[in-house]
Design a protein that fits this description.
By secondary structure, the chain is an alpha+beta fold. It contains four helices and four strands; from the N terminus they run αααββββα. A hairpin with a 2-residue loop joins strand 1 and strand 2.
């Protein structure tokens, strides 16, 4: 293999690693929001002051907002199509999302709130770690649906906010069985 071919291959591998890290970052962010986990939410952003991001966009102010978002019984985010451009230690991303949560409606009865939109992010890689440096969110659509009937037998293992969500116990147990070796 020629040196130029090897260099191209190394650049391509590096770009694929960066893409995988950016996708992992967004999954970590969504998990943090869904579980109302301050540590995960804050770990997704670079910021120099708490005012760097709007409360419902990111950083510590989002973590504060999620901790007080008590009327929602559950949160679920799905991320879908993603467009990324990477230039060295900077990247641009447009990531589609659908978020669903159950909360009380105006009349006090439960509703399912569903929203679709896009995260428009500028990422920076510092100290070999990608995080979101700037973000704005586009809301493309939303709806509220009254919950009139539930599926029998569903909800036996309800999720929730950290640390009560069962995934934290399951992950801790898995980590004990399979410790890191790096």
């Amino acid at each position: 293999m020629k040196t130029s071919d090897l260099e191209k291959l190394e650049r391509r591998i590096s770009e694929l690693e960066d893409r995988a890290q950016l996708q992992d970052l967004l999954v970590r962010y969504c998990r943090g929001v869904d579980r109302r986990d301050r540590e995960l939410i804050e770990s997704a952003f670079w910021y120099s002051s708490p005012d760097d991001f709007e409360p419902r966009i990111g950083g510590p102010r989002l973590a504060d907002y999620m901790e007080t978002f008590g009327d929602a019984k559950c949160h679920t985010h799905f991320i879908g199509n993603q467009y990324l451009e990477i230039r060295g230690s900077n990247a641009y991303g447009e990531t589609y999302f659908v978020s669903i949560h159950i909360r009380e409606g105006d009349d006090g009865r439960p509703v399912t709130a569903v929203r679709g939109g896009r995260y428009i992010d500028e990422f920076e890689k510092r100290f070999e770690e990608w995080r979101i440096a700037r973000r704005f969110k586009i809301d493309d659509w939303d709806r509220l649906d009254p919950i009139t009937k539930r599926i029998a037998g569903i909800g036996d293992h309800a999720g929730g906010a950290r640390p009560a969500d069962p995934t934290y116990e399951a992950l801790a147990s898995w980590r004990k069985r399979y410790p890191r070796r790096d």
